Amino acid sequence: MKKFTEFSGVVAPLDRANVDTDAIIPKQFLKSIKRSGFGPNAFDEWRYLDHGEPGMDNSKRQINPDFVLNQPRYQGAQILLARENFGCGSSREHAPWALEDYGFRVIIAPSFADIFFNNCFKNGLLPVKLDAVQVDALFKAVAAEVGYKLKVDLAQQHIVAPDGTVYPFEVDAHRKHCLLNGLDDIGLTLQHVDDIKAFETKHRAAQPWLFA
Amino acid sequence: MNAQTLYDKLWNSHLVRTEPDGTALIYIDRHLVHEVTSPQAFEGLKLAQRKPWRTGSMLAVPDHNVPTTKHSGGIADPIARLQVETLDANCAEFGITEFKMGDIRQGVVHVMGPEQGATLPGMTVVCGDSHTSTHGAFAALAHGIGTSEVEHVMATQCLVAKKSKTMRVQVDGLLGKSVTAKDIALAVIGQIGTAGGTGYAIEFAGSTIRALSMEGRMTLCNMAIEAGARAGMVAADETTFAYFKGRPFAPQGAQWDQAVAYWRTLHSDAGAKFDATVVLDAVQIKPQVTWGTSPEMVVSVDGRVPDPANAPDAVKRGDWERALIYMGLKANMPITEIKIDKVFIGSCTNGRIEDMRAAAAVAQGKKVAANVKLAMVVPGSGLVKAQAEQEGLDKIFVAAGFEWRDPGCSMCLAMNDDRLAPGERCAATSNRNFEGRQGQGGRTHLVSPAMAAAAAIAGHFVDVRELV
Fold it and tell me: A17 and B315 in contact (C-beta within 8 Å)?
C-alpha cells in the first residue's frame, strides 16, 4: 500500500446522501479478477449517458455533462466531499479501488457505511468524518471558488482550508500508523502468529466440532 | 460477573489480542467464499507466497455470476465464466471445498452455508459479501468484509476489528396474517433509517422474534446491513438447535450434546446493557413496500408515496425528489396504484423454502397479470429447488405463469443476464432498491415473497391480506 503523506488537493462536491457502492462501481465491472483499472468506471451510470460494460473504450463513450465530476473545474480533484452514509450497500472493495484509481485520496463526509469505511484504509484512501455543519460549510466554500483546495495532514489529524480554518478529525491509531507507513495488515498480524496459534489450541479444545 | 450481551459473548470468545487503541484480532471460525470478491485475495496470497491458514474453515460456492437458466449449459459471458473458473482453480489449488455449478448443494452463499450446517451457533463467520449478516440468525457473529480482509482471513485466520456498539431491536406481539420477517426488517429500517445501525451490532429480540422460524430470522438478520449494521443476530434457542440436527457440517453424537450445551449460553444475560434500544409493536406492522431508491424509503401497502414537501429536512427533500423522478412516481399516489413490469422472487433475503411456499400459496390457481412481462422464481440453492419440486411448488408457479429457474443471486444484483431494462418496474424480494441495482434505469420495489406473488397476479401492488 502507498504511504499517505500530507498533500493539498482540489475538492469535488457530490451533493447527495446515501451514495451506495452500486453507484460508485456498478456490478458489471465486478466480473474482473483484477484489482486495478476501475477508475474509468467510477460512478459509471451517472458519469456517462450510455450503458457501460467491461472492455469498452471509455474515451469513446458519451459523457454526461450534468454530472458534477465531469465539470472542467473539478478535473484532477483528489478530495471528494460527500453527504451522510457515503459508501452504503455492498462490501465490494471495488468501490475504494475505483475511487483511488480515479485519483481520489480523501473522502470527506458526515458519516460513512462501516464496511466501505474499513475498506478505504486498506487502499491508501483516507475517509474523514466531519460534523454535518462543517461539511455544509465546505460545500458552500467549494461552490464559491473554482479550484478550491484543502490541505490534508494525517499526522496532525487535521484539514486546513484556504481561509486558515482548521478542521481536526479522528482516526484510529492503528489505521493511522498503517496509512502513514504504507503497511498492510497481514504482515503486522503475522507478527502475532504465536498468539493466534495459542488461541486456536484453546478454542479447539473448547469447541472441537468447529474443527471437524 | 457482569451481565453480557450476546455480542459481548461472541466477541470475547474469539478475542486473540487487543491493542491499546482497542484494535483487536478476532479469530474466524468460518470463511465463506464466492467468485466475485475472492480472485484478488487469492492472487495477493500467491504473490506473497502465502497459503491459507486453515482450509477446513473455508467453503466456496459460485453464486453472483451464475446463470439461472439451465446450469448445465455453462456460462455464456466469457468474463463471468473466467471469474467462476478462477474460483474453481483457486479452490482446487489450495484444497478448498467448493460446491460448483451443477452440484445440488450449489446456491446463494448465505442460503448454502446454514443449509449445510457450515454456519453454527457461537461461530464467527465472514464472507466478502455484506449480506453475511444473515448468519447472525444462528447466534453467530457474522459480517461482510472487503477483499483485502478476505486475503487477511485466508492468511491469518483472523480479522483486525474494533468492537461495535450494541443495539437491541425489541419486537413483541403477534404478527398479523401474511405479515413476515421481511416486513419487520423493512419496518425497522423505515424507523431507524439506512444509517441507523451504523457502528452497531444489532440483536433482534422479543416474543415476535422468538416465534420466527430460522428462515424468518435469516431474512431479518440479512437486512441488518440495510439498516447500516454490519452484524445482526438472534439468540440461540430450541428453534436454532432443531434446525441443525442432522445437517452435513453439524456436530454429531456426543459432540452434538456438548455443542448444544454450549449453544444454550448464547443469549444476552438478563440486565445486559445495550448502547441503544429500538422497540416495535408487531401488531402495528403491515405488509411493507419500498417506494424509493433506498430501503428506508418504505411505507405500508395501504399508504401513499410520500410528498417531498413533507420531508423533515432539505437533504431528505432533495433525496425524495430525486427518488421520485428516478422511480417515475408521483407524490401522494396510493401504493396499490403502482403497476409493475417484472417480479423477482429469490435472493439471500427470500430464496428459502419457506419463501417459496409463501409465494406459491398466493399464486396457487391464479394467473400472472397480462401486463407483467416476466415473473421469475429463483430458489436460493439446488436443495431448496429440489425440496420445492418435491412439494409441487414448481408446478404451481409454472401453471400460474411464473418462470422456475436454477439457483443463484440472479436479479438481486443483476450480474448475470437476469436484469431490468431501463424504466422497468419490479416487485422484488431482494434487499436493495438502489438506482441501477437490478439493471441500469431499473426501478425496484422491495417486498415480501407473498406480496411479490400477489403483485404478479394483480399486475400492481395489492395488500396480500385481502387475497388470502
Answer: yes
* A97-136 residues touching B, CB cutoff 8 A: 111-115, 118-119, 122-123
Cell numbers for A160, please give them.
486546513
pLDDT value of residue A99? 98
Which residues on A lie below 8 Å from B229 (Cβ)? 114
- Chain A: nearest CA to B465, how far in angstroms? 31
Instruction: State phi, psi for B408 to the nearest 5 degrees.
Output: 165, 175
> Per the confidence metrics, is the pTM higher than 0.95?
yes
Residues in chain B with pLDDT values less than 70: 1
Q: Can you say whether the dihedral through the CA atoms of B14, B16, B19, B20 is positive or negative?
A: positive
CB contact under 8 A, A189 and B156: yes
Q: What is the mean pLDDT of residues A47-64?
A: 96
Contacts of A203 in chain B (CB under 8 A): 14, 27
What residue of B is the nearest CA neighbor of A15? B315
Residue identified by cell 456436530 is: B251
Q: Does A64 touch chain B (CB under 8 A)?
A: no
* C-alpha to C-alpha distance for B452 and B360, rounded to whole angstroms: 11
What's the pLDDT score for residue B299? 98
Q: B401-412, pLDDT tens digit by residue?
A: 999 999 999 999
CB B9 within 8 A of CB B265: yes
DSSP output for B226-285: GGT-SEEE----HHHHHHHTT-TTS--HHHHHHHHHHHTT-SPPTT---SEEEEEEGGG-
Q: Which set of grid coordinates corresponds to residue B412? A: 438481486
Whole-number Å distance between alpha carbons of A22 and A19:
8
DSSP A105-149: -EEEES-B-HHHHHHHHTTT-EEEE--HHHHHHHHHHHHHSTT-E
